[in-house]
Specification:
It contains three helices and 14 strands. It is an alpha+beta fold. Helix content is 19%, strand content 51%. 20% of the residues are buried. The N terminus is likely disordered.
Length: 171
């Protein structure tokens, strides 16, 4: 009887050790979702052409990962008062997100008093819009809400000439 108890105890301990060892070897990953919202501005539309969302998981330029992006032209003014939209998502290793980059297209515009004007983004077409994050991802679903503050980002530099110098905040 003691022999059977000892054998069963050894089997239970060995089984538990195998389970613990297997769980430690699995690399954990997180589904990261990037959402976009906006603060009000004195315009009818502020359209930003977002083509790709990338995240950097390292301190250097080698850690960039492309997320699955819902590419398109986003009217930031439709994303106010608690309204946001899913911009991108992707499965990433549980890690620190160092930086997020929005790669932009050329169809950026602002509509003021019924007239649409091009919205130029100095150096935005080459490098995109960047925001420092330095956030540890959870081991389960994680979501970052990016507030694109159009009121602070839009600068009129002449008659019908508008520049976008983005002010982006993590909420």
């Amino acid at each position: 009887m003691k022999r059977i108890t000892i054998i069963i105890s050894v089997i239970v301990v060995a089984f538990a050790a195998v389970l613990v060892a297997c769980s430690k070897n699995n690399e954990t990953s997180t589904t990261l979702k990037i959402r976009l919202t906006d603060n009000p501005v004195n315009a009818e539309e502020v359209n930003v052409d977002i083509q790709q969302v990338r995240v950097n998981l390292q301190d250097d330029s080698t850690g960039w990962v492309n997320l699955t992006t819902n590419a398109g032209i986003y009217n930031l003014l439709g994303l106010q008062n608690g309204v946001d939209t899913l911009l991108a998502s992707g499965l990433l290793p549980t890690n620190y997100v160092k930086e997020i980059r929005f790669v932009l297209g050329s169809a950026n515009s602002i509509k003021v008093a019924g007239v649409a004007y091009p919205l130029t983004i100095p150096s935005g077409s080459e490098s995109g819009l960047k925001i420092k994050v330095n956030k540890q991802l959870n081991t389960t679903l994680d979501s970052l809400l990016i507030d694109f503050d159009a009121a602070l980002s839009i600068h009129q530099v002449g008659t019908g000439i508008y520049h976008l110098k983005p002010v982006l905040k993590i909420k």
